[in-house]
Amino acid sequence: MKRKQGYGLAVLLRGTAACRTAPRQPPPLPQRSQPLSTTSPTPGPLQGLRVLDLTRVLAGPFATMALGDLGADVIKIEHPQRGDDTRAWGPPFVGGESAYFLSVNRNKRSVGVDFKQSEGLEIVRRLASESDVLIENFLPGKLEKAGLGYDVLSELNPRLIYCSITGFGSDGIAAQRPGYDVIMQGMYGLMSITGSPSDEGGEPAKTGVAMVDLATGLFAHGAILAALHGRHQTGRGQKIDCSLMETQLACLVNIGQNWLLGATTEAKRWGTAHESIVPYQAFKCKDGKYMIGAGNDKQFEKLAVAVGMPELSQDPRFRTNKDRTEHRKILINLLQTFFSTKTRVELDAIFKAMGGLPYGPLRNIGEAFQDAQAQHRKMVVKVPHPTIGELPLAGLPVKYSSTKPSIRRAPPLLGQHTEEVLQECLGYTVDDVQRLRKAKIVC
Predict the structure, then answer these.
(1) pTM for the whole thing?
(2) Whether 134 contacts 100, CB under 8 Å
(3) Does the first or last residue of the chain, that is N or C, have fewer Cβ atoms within 10 Å of its Cβ?
(4) Edge-to-edge strands of the sheet including 280-285?
């Protein structure tokens, strides 16, 4: 896609006193109509798209990593001294970098810039004028006060897609509250249905990874792609408003719908089991635990045969899923007598031979990544990193037949690409960048 040419300085600097009184005029934008080249072995579906990433921690970086994997040129704006919060979230640290930061920041270029200073603000505004997408996760109103709100930037760049991720939404009585994933899990229902079984006195638990953040990032990623399609039709960008709170409520799916339909009892925790499907849980076996799921009556028939109790599927207590949920404890105890006599490998062989039944052992993280199917699908990849050497990363979860995504860049060091981006995108000279570094405006 063709990229817009430079804006006049008067337009670029309109909107904040800090910019209007900047002591030094920036160089003009370089004239170019082609997107920056990438090191991608194949052009991803978003090649030529530029994303200005002002997000930190997880939801936003997860969304921008997904866009970067698809070929977009993602420019990550970071504080020049601290960087993204997750750079300090450890241990573990490897080569001076935290595993947390490494997990969600590949395929990005890091620019360290302090946009509280007028020349730093000028840099971010000019990058926004040359970008297709801007995504941020500051408290509502904070970027507006800084001169980086949607109203100002959409005047500079009417085609800009501006995506905000917040804890509670951009308006309302809780809009100014900061929000982390675990707070949303607790406040909006997920933690109340996650953990050891309520009937056994189990306590609520958070999910092992920050699923509210991750789901919000995926919603934001999808919304950005939809807005880009809308721009093809209208020629204009728009603002997107995502929040952790709304994502969490939307992701309650069937449990939330039960309540909306007037459920007479409050939802509870089931451990590995399922409220509405039986059997659908982990069983203890000789060397660990093993998951089985019979999602319909036909699958239950197969399970009954596989465990050597074919009569179970004809027992009036277990004939239908409704029957099985009503007689859950009796059925689970019967099945447990079989699982207790087998190892995970033996159970794999039994259920593989039966076919048509979902099954699998409970594995730890190492076992999961070493799984033969995961290896076959290239879910572990290695990329060169400047301080770590060969860096293993989780692979691409979606495969394309032609415009293939790729991992072209390792997660960046703080400010690794500042000079490169300022020169290529904004026409700064080496001397310009050195002066800004000395002033601690960039790193």
Answers:
(1) 0.89
(2) no
(3) N
(4) 280-285, 288-293, 359-361
Other C-beta atoms closer than 10 Å to the C-beta of 358 total: 13
**Cα–Cα nearest to 354, from 305, 281, 294, 289:** 305
Give the whole-angstrom CA distance, residue 109 versus residue 409: 8
Can you tell me the distance from the alpha carbon of 440 to that of 429, in angstroms, rounded to the nearest whole number? 17
Residue with tokens 């019979």: 294
Q: Residue 165, SS3? A: strand
Give the model confidence (pLDDT) of 354-379 as tens digits: 999 999 999 999 999 999 999 999 99
**Residue whose entry in the numeric block shows the structure tokens 């501006």:** 162
231: exposed, middle or buried (Cβ count in 10 Å: 0-12, 13-18, 19+): middle
Q: What is the pLDDT of residues 164-214, one digit of tens each?
A: 999 999 999 999 999 999 999 999 999 999 999 999 999 999 999 999 999
Give CA–CA dist 338/202, Å, rounded: 26
Residue from 73, 84, 181, 213 carrying the catalytic annotation: 213
The three state secondary structure string of 272-333 is: CCCCCCCCEEEEEECCEEEEEECCCHHHHHHHHHHCCCHHHHHCCCCCCHHHHHHCHHHHHH
Q: How many CB atoms lie within 10 A of CB 366?
A: 7
92: exposed, middle or buried (Cβ count in 10 Å: 0-12, 13-18, 19+): exposed
